[in-house]
UniProtKB/TrEMBL annotation:
It comes from the Bacteria. Belongs to the glycosyltransferase group 1 family. Glycosyltransferase 4 subfamily. This is Glycosyl transferases group 1. The keyword Transferase applies. The keyword Lipoprotein does not apply. It comes from Posidoniimonas polymericola.
């Protein structure tokens, strides 16, 4: 079997890293189970993609299978007002056949095909299925998950008049077309939309070891000099780009609560201009309040960074923190243990339940961080959240609920992440102005917060046991076996002769996906605010 992996680009990022890790996972399979050959289809962009995917020592000199890069400019992000599915299908088919990949011997594995980055892709994949290509459609992220600009683009370009009509266009159903999700939450959502359970697979990302991590004793003095802090300062690192869904304000709140003995540091600034507005606001607030919180420490000095190498930051840290409110897979929940560091911060239960079922213990995380409602104008905050949700529903073309979701409450105390950004800033200012009393109030509201702030919560975590769990359950070898099982199942799923062999239906209730995501109790304002 030949394998063609399709994504819009190979620039550095979560999906590109997952593709690279999948190649390493497939390489762990024995002869006969590996693909004969792999083609990576992309638009032509590949910033920071390695010159060889086999740079790790165990494969250098003897690649387990050939990997070729095939550029098709038609896969680039688009803002067209009309789809051109046939044109894109012809381009992909032509590139593949040009190197000897045919429907008879090729499985096509597409990533994030329905995210709205290229509105022609869903139509193109249907056409390629009709031409005989068996496919795995892997969803990392959803346009329906509070990504209104992506969703609007899909609506406009496909000419869809309603969410139901768009869902019929986006999500095919046919023999030989299987779906994969990263987590159990998305798996349940697709089941609800009507994906055949035998054509739906849970496929976690493999977690790769941090080869080349410097010793802590070597990295710590270097990083502390770069950050301008003493080596006695406790260093808590947030290893992400500071985009909105990473909930950067909560990092500032932890910094305000912890005080001057702890330095919180986020590694990279966002590159997307749309994400810079929020990030720059947090940078200004941290500077205004003189918080021991440094943002963008991995950025170059010319861009207000500290030029700290990523591996140095991890090695020098005392703990890893996450405050994110939305993840497709949540790699940080697994990777922290492989750098031998405890993990503290915010839990995403719908994501991490997959990990805890395998035995991972995440005692340093909390599902919410409550702040006293009396610190802010709670009624005004509640009104803004309801207005934001109504706006989002209208923007997605969905009905606006007459009443808040049953069971949804807002006060008397409220999760920090559920606040609009300006109210989050008010909370941080209040804590900075009243450090002792504010900390006491929050510690009373949040059991375990005192331990997270003092470092006690980090010290007591089962780092070695969690690392062993990750290496067993999410290693390249484990995910390689899972990939092999899924590809084998797809290959055995022959076209349905009863439907003529080329009929492509749609999911029975594809709109269920939008209904599942566009819920008031899933809304975090910082994801939608500029």
């Amino acid at each position: 079997m030949k394998l063609a992996i399709l994504h819009y680009h190979l620039n550095r990022g979560g999906v590109s890293q997952a593709i690279l890790n999948h190649l390493h996972a497939l390489a762990t399979l024995p002869d006969g189970q590996r693909p004969d050959e792999v083609a990576l289809l992309y638009s032509g962009r590949k910033e920071d993609w390695p010159s060889s995917v086999w740079k790790r020592s165990e494969w250098e000199g003897e690649p387990p299978f050939p990997v070729r890069l095939l550029a098709a400019q038609e896969l680039e992000y688009d803002d067209a007002i009309h789809c051109d599915g046939p044109g894109l299908a012809d381009a992909v088919d032509g590139v593949l056949r040009g190197v000897g990949f045919t429907p008879d011997d090729t499985l096509l594995h597409s990533h994030n095909f329905a995210l709205g980055k290229n509105a022609s892709l869903p139509d193109a994949l249907r056409l390629l299925a009709q031409r005989g290509y068996r496919q795995l459609l892997q969803l990392h992220d959803f346009a329906e998950d509070f990504r209104p600009s992506n969703y609007r683009h899909l609506m406009r370009a496909t000419g869809s008049q309603s969410p139901a009509e768009l869902a019929e266009r986006l999500y095919p159903s046919a023999s030989g077309m299987h779906y994969a999700t990263l987590n159990g939450r998305d798996h349940k959502i697709l089941l609800g939309a009507g994906v055949d359970p035998e054509r739906l697979h849970l496929l976690s990302n493999p977690v790769i070891e941090f080869h080349g991590l410097p010793p802590r004793d070597e990295a710590r003095p270097r990083v502390c000099r770069q950050l301008g802090i003493s080596e006695d300062t406790r260093l808590v690192v947030y290893p992400v780009r500071g985009i909105r869904r990473k909930n950067v304000g909560e990092l500032l709140l932890y910094s305000a609560l912890a005080g001057p003995g702890v330095c919180h540091a986020l590694t990279l600034a966002p590159v997307n201009p749309a994400e810079r507005i929020s990030y720059d606001d947090w940078c200004e607030l941290a500077e205004e309040l003189q918080l021991p919180c440094l943002l963008g420490i991995g950025d170059p000095l010319s861009r207000q960074g500290r030029d700290v190498e990523f591996y140095d930051a991890l090695a020098a840290s005392d703990a890893i923190i996450t405050t994110s409110v939305a993840e497709g897979f949540g790699m940080v929940f697994l990777e922290a243990w492989l750098v031998d560091r405890p993990l503290i911060g915010r839990n995403l239960g719908r994501i991490t339940s997959d990990f805890t079922e395998h035995g991972l213990r995440l005692g340093g995380l909390t599902d919410r961080l409550l702040v006293p409602g009396g610190w802010i104008d709670l009624d005004a905050a509640r009104e803004e959240v309801l207005d934001l949700h109504s706006w989002a529903c209208r923007d997605f073309g969905a009905p606006v609920p007459e009443n808040p979701t049953e069971g949804w409450t807002y006060g008397p105390d409220v999760d920090f992440a559920a606040l609009p950004r300006r109210f989050q800033a008010d909370v941080i200012r209040h804590v900075t102005a009243n450090p002792e009393s504010a900390r006491q109030e929050m510690e009373q509201l949040n059991p375990g917060l005192a331990d997270r702030l003092s470092g006690v919560a980090a010290e007591g975590q089962p780092v070695a046991e969690n690392a062993a769990c990750v290496r067993k359950q999410f290693s390249p070898a484990a995910v390689g076996r899972r990939l092999s099982e899924i590809y084998t199942a797809i290959w055995a799923d022959a076209p349905d002769n009863k439907t003529g062999g080329d009929r492509i239906d749609s999911l029975p209730d594809g709109e269920h996906i939008l209904r599942s995501f566009l819920r008031l109790d899933r809304l975090f304002p910082v994801r939608l605010e500029p």
